[in-house]
Amino acid sequence: MSSFPRLARTGHTSHCKICLSGLPFSQVEVDASRIAVIFYCLGAMDLLGTLSAKTSETDRQKWRDWFWEQQTSGKYGTGFKPSTYMTPQGGNDEYSDYDIPHLVMTYTALLSLAILRDDFSKLDRPGILRFMRACQREDGSFSALPDGGEADLRSVYCAFALSNMLDDWSGVDVDRAVSYIQRCSSYEGGYGQTPYHEALGGTTYCAVAALYLAPSTAHSSPETRMTPAERARTIRWLTQNQTSSGGFRGRTGKLADACYCFWCGATLTILGVGNLVDSTALAMFMAQCQYKFGGIAKAPSERPDPYHTYLSLASLALHPSREGDSSWDLSPLNVFWNITEETARWIKDHIPGYKA
Amino acid sequence: MSAAFDDSSDEQQLYAADPEWADVVPLQQYEGVDPIAPIFYSEEYKDATDYFRGIVKTGEMSPKVLKLTEHIIRMNPAHYSAWQYRYKTLIALNSPLKAELELMDNFAIQFLKTYQVWHHRRLLLGALRSVDVAVRELAFVTRTLRTDTKNYHTWSYRQWILAHFNDEARLWPGELPWVEELLEEDVRNNSAWHHRFFVVWQSGVRRDEVDREEVLRRELAFTKEKISLAPNNQSAWNYLRGVLDHTHTPYASLTSFVQPYTVGAPSDPEDSIVDLENPRPSAGAELPSLPALEFLADIYEAEGGDGISKAVRIWKSLADEHDTIRKKYWEYRIKDALHGAQ
């Protein structure tokens, strides 16, 4: 037991803090998804419990202001854009067709604002519902942008999580979306990114979480959206993905990657069998993915990034190993929203109109 | 990834100094409040995107916009606004879309993992509405998959082409032989197995495959053969299960095939009559095969009665000996079966 590795809490916090202060040009690809990167940094610090000690209230106030500047309204309704990368000096009164809100960014923005303990008084609730309606397509899927762009299970999940946070499902045609999700189910037991594609860990989480998040309708309920045989097949495929390295892979036959420890493990948790994860093997894998200067990488001896750092910590929060010392203590995670329970509670208490 | 514009990128002059761009008013990026996690842009990227924001403001769609968006995309292939504007400009100018597709060949290989590269191709194909082009694209995908045999975007794109054009004479016939080639090279390529399922079971019935019983026999024979080469290959076993589930064929129909894979060492070949329908594990195979043990336990469990205790015995051996990382899963199966049997 004494030889069990430690979680490098200080290193991971400083990795996130450095990213929040600025990203090198080699990261320019996140220009169009910057809010997500910020969410991973804030989320990691929230899980570690280091946010209030390691950042100042002045910083957090500035960040809240910055987030609200990304909330933007126009002909498709209201949502958050990834950053100001397409916003010209002087700003826009209404967004242009090339500076519109993004569904996935809207989901991560609400989570980030909750981590920063915003009071949500500036939230345009009806506008966001209108925006979601504009994103749903004929086949039941959602596109990330109302006038096109990627339409797949990721956006479906974000629309469902947002509806759940707002406690209002009027922005979503649940039955059509559920039937889309079911069409993404693969013979292996996982779900592909879109119908008929290969089973993949991340989109399997999106599918299963969405099936359980949506309220009952006249046609389906969370209990009936997967048959017992489908559920058994999904559990089988998910557990099969934990490899001898201790980590999970995202597809049959591939190598383990830290992010799939969250996607696969969290899906098992949603299905009520999170205890099937070998949590000690998982922690040993994560320990090897830790980068010597902080942050967690997708695999041993790779470079870390906020995405893998956050998801690794989220996975460790869901599946704590009994072997680990107090360095492994993390805040409990709300598996449906992918945020700490405390922050989820904040959302329920502060998002206007939350009835539960 | 910061990609160079082209080989002469060092001399790439800024748009601000280019007379061709003198008529465009550049618009700097808005940063009202102190930004969080700002990206430290290069001078070249900042200059190009300033001019792009200027273009978007006026709505100009001209050949020079195509050059600008290409430049931005080469620096940042995930810049979806540049992609969107580029596509609209191509359509507005009535540009030759086949030439665009050729340009994209180079992009796709350089930026294989970027979604937008593939999305743009789909838009082009949708606009071109040509089976000839679709045929060309399948050939392109075949080449691309040689460099990265499991790239998710590439595979999705291929499946999209097949379903979108759905051409019985010119697109579908090559798929099965091609999948077989891929599995010949790497029998563990799960994407190829998945594609096989898509082609045989999901995309509608092929003209020469109306006899579904015959298709089932062929698929079982094919899969058994591949399992005999690599008995622990999870991809082949998952395909086998997928076929059986899809056709509602009981797993028990494969008992005599599975059994030789569940024992510790291959039985003496002298002892056994060669059974073409049930190929035995190849020489030197690592036995027992875990997926075979699991499969046999499923057969026993479905049998019920005494079968349950036989299944439990296998699950115990998996939990304690052969597959300890999934110990809790096998124990869960035991609990579940015993509970169900009561």
Q: What this model shows, in words?
A:
- The complex is a heterodimer of chains A (about 350) and B (about 350).
- Chain A is mainly alpha-helical and about 350 residues long.
- Chain A has one domain (about 10-350): Glycosyltransferase, CATH 1.50.10.20.
- Chain A has helices at about 10-20, 35-50, 50-55, 55-70, 105-115, 125-135, 155-165, 175-185, 200-215, 230-240, 260-270, 280-290, 305-320, 340-350, and strands at about 70-75, 75-80, 140-145, 150, 335, 340.
- A two-stranded antiparallel sheet of chain A has the order 1-2.
- In chain A, strand 3 (about 140-145) and strand 4 (about 150) form a beta hairpin.
- Chain A is globular.
- Chain A starts with 8 loop residues before the first helix and ends in a 6-residue tail after the last helix.
- The mean pLDDT of chain A is about 95.
- Chains A and B meet through helix 1, helix 2, helix 4, strand 4 and helix 10 of A and helix 1, helix 3, helix 7, helix 9 and helix 11 of B.
- Chain A: GO terms for molecular function: CAAX-protein geranylgeranyltransferase activity; metal ion binding.
- Chain A: Belongs to the protein prenyltransferase subunit beta family.
- Chain A: InterPro entries: PGGT1B-like, Prenyltrans, Terpenoid_cyclase/PrenylTrfase.
- Chain A: Its cofactor is Zn(2+).
- Chain A: One of its GO terms (cellular component) is CAAX-protein geranylgeranyltransferase complex.
